[in-house]
Specification:
Elements (H helix, E strand, L loop, with lengths): L1 H4 L4 H4 L3 E6 L6 H12 L4 E6 L21 H4 L2 H8 L3 E4 L5 H4 L11 H4 L12 H5 L1
Parallel strand pairs: 1-2, 2-3
Length: 134
């Protein structure tokens, strides 16, 4: 599906430094594939910037984020992830900036559990997303 959806335009990428911006890296497989496509199209440098902090913990509240064991940032440093996906550099949003970007007050708290592990409710069995959903 990714190959059907994403096709770099070689004449636009070839010989260029590319900055690729995405909302998140969950497992890293799609990002590695996209970086490979850009390299194959002739990009000389690929710098990846992610508009969220690294996903370190599974989400049990609606976002489809798998168990921590399958989250690339839960098991690797930013430098290791950069190497795994084949980018020249990788940067994430610092989690401390989230309150500056999103309104967070006592009446409308923002859940940051996937970034910091502080879940707003007790977890039932909590070691895997699938177990919680059952």
């Amino acid at each position: 599906m990714v190959r059907i959806k994403l096709n770099p335009i070689t004449r636009t990428v070839k010989g260029k430094r590319v900055v690729m911006i995405d909302d998140s890296i969950v497992r890293g497989t799609t990002m590695a594939y996209i970086v490979g496509l850009l390299r194959d199209a002739g990009a000389i440098e690929i710098h990846v910037r992610i508009t969220s902090p690294p996903f370190l913990h599974p989400c049990y509240y609606g976002t489809d984020i798998d168990s921590a064991g399958k989250l690339i940032a839960s098991n690797h440093s930013i430098e290791e992830i950069c190497k795994i996906i084949g980018a020249d550099s990788l940067g994430y949003l610092n989690k401390d900036y989230l309150p500056l970007l999103i309104s967070d007050d006592i009446d409308h708290p923002i859940c940051r559990a996937c970034f910091d592990g502080n879940y707003p409710t007790a977890l039932y069995g909590g070691e895997s997303k699938d177990k919680f959903e059952c």
